[in-house]
Amino acid sequence: MNTASKAGPPGRGYVALAGWLALCYAVAALGALATTNARAFYAGLAKPGWAPPGWLFGPVWSVLFTAMAFAAWLALRTAPGVARPRAQWLFVAQLAVNALWSWLFFGWQLGGWALAELLLMWALIAATLRAFWVLRRAAAWLMAPYLAWVTFAGVLNAVLWRMNPGILG
Amino acid sequence: MNTASKAGPPGRGYVALAGWLALCYAVAALGALATTNARAFYAGLAKPGWAPPGWLFGPVWSVLFTAMAFAAWLALRTAPGVARPRAQWLFVAQLAVNALWSWLFFGWQLGGWALAELLLMWALIAATLRAFWVLRRAAAWLMAPYLAWVTFAGVLNAVLWRMNPGILG
């Protein structure tokens, strides 16, 4: 019984991990739907010298979505309390905003709106990271590369929006 | 004695108000130093149709700096506690960042860095407003137009940075 309790409440074991992975990959796929022509679109943009090559984004996002699923699992399988529903709400909100960003930037090519939405995404990820920190430190650390990448993506979004007035709205 | 205690701790009455006004106007002047050629500079920028006329900025900032001095006075004359030094630190930090923005945008014409710095300023103002809210609601309300204006200034900064690649770095 003690071991079971250490492994977290029922329904928050490996089945829950599979659930979080499924949710995160579903959201990643929803965003990826917007990027079907992304390689040609990205290749056609004026870019700064430090812009990463197009092939890098897929692998990076795969790692980040996997890490955030593990983060959600670790943080939200902890004992129930006031902090947990809030953290879960923030995590799901940042996921939704993440998928929408792909549509704004790649799907509808609205660089300015994408930038504004990315600021909201950044704030939601930071709030999620902070909420996870209270629940489980390791979960917060798993969100840190994601926040760092979105910071970088924000700078890239801003610069691409500026450099491509004819393409990005 | 009760009346004196209601008016706040010693040194936090009208002398303190004068002190906050002096500090805020000094910071406003420090920022204004960067904008000595601002009217001609702003007039020469490509602008969206909704950009406010140049003469509007001075009056708006005068009102906002006055309101924030009153906000600081109201919030920070409340009874001492853990929340007060933090609120004071946040208020002074956002003031410093505010003055630096004028130098980045008008003085050094670094539109991209100004935009990035403005995001930090926005976060600091929001945190100050939140800290004031705990201390005294009226003080938080006095900060609200400032936060709204900086939100608008952020959008304007981003659009001007994009529309003037040859002028704004």
The helix/strand series of chain A, from N terminus to C terminus, equals HHHHHHH
Strand portion of chain A, in percent? under 5%
Helix content of chain A: over 70%
Quick one: overall form of chain A? elongated
**Could you describe the largest sheet of chain A, including whether it forms a barrel?**
none
Rg on CA atoms of chain A, Å: 17 Å
Tally of strands of chain A: 0
Q: Which helices and strands, and how do they pair?
A:
Two copies of one chain form a homodimer.
Chain A: H1 2-6, H2 14-33, H3 38-44, H4 57-76, H5 83-107, H6 111-135, H7 137-163
Helix pairs in contact in A: 2-4, 2-5, 4-7, 5-6, 6-7
Explain what this protein looks like in three dimensions.
Two copies of one chain form a homodimer. The longest helix of chain A is centred in the last third of the chain and has 27 residues, at 137-163. Chain A is built from seven helices and no strands. Chain A is mainly alpha-helical. The termini of chain A are far apart. Chain A has helices at residues 2-6, 14-33, 38-44, 57-76, 83-107, 111-135, 137-163. The first copy, chain A, is elongated, with a radius of gyration of 17 Å. Chain A is 76% helix and 0% strand. Chains A and B meet through helix 6 and helix 7 of A and helix 6 and helix 7 of B.
